[in-house]
Amino acid sequence: MHLSIKQTQDLNLVMTVQLRQAIELLQYSTQELEQYIREQELVNPLIELSEPTFQERAHFSQGVRRHTNILEHVTKYEKNIRDDLFEEIKLAFHEDQDIKLLKHIIYHLDDNGYYEQPITPTFKDDEIEKGIHLLQAIGPLGIGARNLKECLLLQTMYRESSPAHAETVIFSYLDELANKEWKKIANELNISLCKLQEIYQFIQTLQPKLSSLFHQEAVHHNTPDIIVDYVDGTITFSLNDYYLPKINIHADYAPYITANSSEKSYFKKYLSDYQWLVNSVEQRRNTIIKIMRALIEKQKAFFLHGFDAIEPLTLREIAEQIEVHESTVSRVTTNKYVQTAYGTFELRDLFTSKLQTTNGNSVSQVKVKSLLVDYIKTENKKKPFSDQKIAEHFNTILGIEISRRTIAKYREEMNIPSSTRRKVIQF
């Protein structure tokens, strides 16, 4: 056997920690960015933050910047539902560990009231389980659930009027219930169809999501990241980042980073982190501005007339126009809200795929979904439209080329049940 040593070269793309953090920064909302900046002040002694003066906000229009008084548009920030829940928790519970656990859960609730576990878990599963049950004492029932089944179970467990066997039906027979397999459920639980109907009607009163509670918050409390105005016949926009603190070098440590300082090597990493943070925040801001300029150009009709006038648009089209990667546009438009004359929407809502019409034109996915909802509202609930019937209506009556499978996809995206499940129950 002959042994030898060989030297080879491999080309690998290595993502540095700072590059990964810069990518994450693009996805942050303005409020999340503020929190991140304040966290950096705690870990980097060179960073000193100064609070904004709240004097003016920059507006952008066709590359021209103008300023306006910030008080003309910005309303006072109010506490949201999560803050209200936490105030109740501090009154109802006295153990520090319980309060810490419940604070973690409520500030990780999504807009449906469900608990979203962070990528790096802070608490064990059994601790989260305990916290969710403690949270039911504050309410509303079902809050903090991790999925639909748990949400329904929590409401059933903590409601005194819950009928017998309701928990069992929810835990073991939700699919059968949705598919109306009444005899199977009744036989296996040894109950009458009349009793099962009572359970079914009870479950119908439960809330699968608490989105109405959080929707109210989203409308009244969420701070938009971008504000679009229509002034003197021109569409302008501004970044609603007036409250972000300014990032400075801490005055006490400035002498230590000079060329003649013996401590310069100690502060080298901190200086690099400071410079990276300043550059990344500015790069994020400039990228948002470029994307918004392109969006206003592409979706001018939407900003003037609302969602009924929205044009089909893809992330790639915007990426090509501003000469960045499509993934950059995807990250920047994630978790950002834009305030318009027609309401506040997630920036991602302005991107919608298109469907062809028989006259050669195209129609946006948003418009098709709106038409789908309107058509389903007209159906006879004793004999609801099938997906095939709806597709035929769109193709022959509305002139929109769409398949049965696409109808089913849109229906599921809007949480509209199938025709079988929309049918009025008849025993």
From TrEMBL:
Residues 72-253 form the RNA polymerase sigma factor 54 core-binding domain. InterPro entries: RNA_pol_sigma_54, RNA_pol_sigma_54_core-bd, RNA_pol_sigma_54_DNA-bd, RpoN_core-bd_sf. It comes from the Bacteria. Residues 265-423 form the RNA polymerase sigma factor 54 DNA-binding domain. The keyword Chloroplast does not apply. Keywords: DNA-binding, DNA-directed RNA polymerase, Nucleotidyltransferase, Sigma factor, Transcription, Transcription regulation, Transferase. Belongs to the sigma-54 factor family. This is RNA polymerase factor sigma-54.
